[in-house]
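Let us work through a complete example step by step.
Step 1: write down the sequence.
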Amino acid sequence: MKNHLLLEGLSQVKYNKADVDILEKMISDINDEAVAKSIPLARLKDHLNSLNDSFGGGGSADVTPFPKKLRDLSKNFSVHFGNSAASSFSMEYHGMGTRSWASMLAVRAFTGLMEELHKAEAEPYHPIIAAEEPEAHLHPNAQRSLFSQLISATGQAIVSTHSPYLAAMCALPNLRSLSARGGHTQCFSLINGLADEELKSLHRQVIRDKGEVLFAKALILFEGQTEDQVVPAMFERWFGVTAFSKGINLAAVNGRNYTPYLKLALSLGIPTVIVSDNDTKNGMSSKVDVDGQIAKIAAETNLDLTANWFRLEYLTDPFDFEAELVKSCDLQAEIIDSFMLMKEGFNINPHFLDAQRAKLEEKTNDQLIEEMRKAKTQYSGFLADVLIENKNGKNREAIVPQALQNAFTTIEGWLN
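Step 2: predict the structure and record it as tokens.
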């Protein structure tokens, strides 16, 4: 726990002469008692007294387990922590996370002390605390607590982090993102001019539940719950690895409101693809709605919507994702298998399951699509498993919609 600020803070711990005499007398008594009650220490003192012979009887040996002078206490300053005073032990024996946290709190404490000293001397004082990944080895709630303590300290705190928990607690205008593309590293921040309600919307819709998007190399956005389960499986079939292993985030916006996600991502240097449904709901065409959002962003901001940073893809007209899987990708067999996996969790009677499969196989495409829409949150996870297993041996182009193929190809280009 030693650092320059800590040592400087300890140097400010002072006592008056009377207190020094009293405290040093107490330390002397403790040293005498510790030596007297320890056979090895007492024997050591006796042996060291033989040094008198070397100095003509004028030397004196003294064994002091504790520093004799009060001014030397800071040289062996330590912090003990535990569930109780009886069970506490030195910080050096705690885990790295606890040690790091304690160091940050010690810095915070002495920063406050030095602020008071500067105020007393009418001197300006504005400390800057820089912390590199203070979340290391701490569980999420401890990370949040530490961040709150850091930003409430005197002066300014600059924190580098890979923790979505810390990033989610930071005021969005204070976020900075460092992104390396094309051999150059750039610093990005949220665009200016966002209204308070927009900031609240960004935090509510994106940061609170999907803070990990802040650390993505690229982002693919889509509309709903089925895609949230199935697109990661399609990504894995296409690339042969998971999305997160490539640093790619896949996020459902739970509707058509892509604007908050796109503003945040492009502001912070995260290239983004939108793969939108192409149907009509409540009298509003998806294409008209989403095209309008993009046009509004282009008119009101200076965000880069060129192919280097952004791509917009639509599913086949007039399909939503469920219809795309059935009518464009011909995944009826895989979808039926996913429904059967779901049903096996409720009933293992083979006759019942055979009857259920026969019913599904008799359905028309439109009827199967309706079944999918009614059970989005139930069957889609099973469909992801079926696509990964690929027992029918289909190639990747056969199971991935063209719009997603285009998105994946774009992502490959960005990454390279």
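Step 3: interpret the result. The first strand starts at residue 80 and ends at 81.
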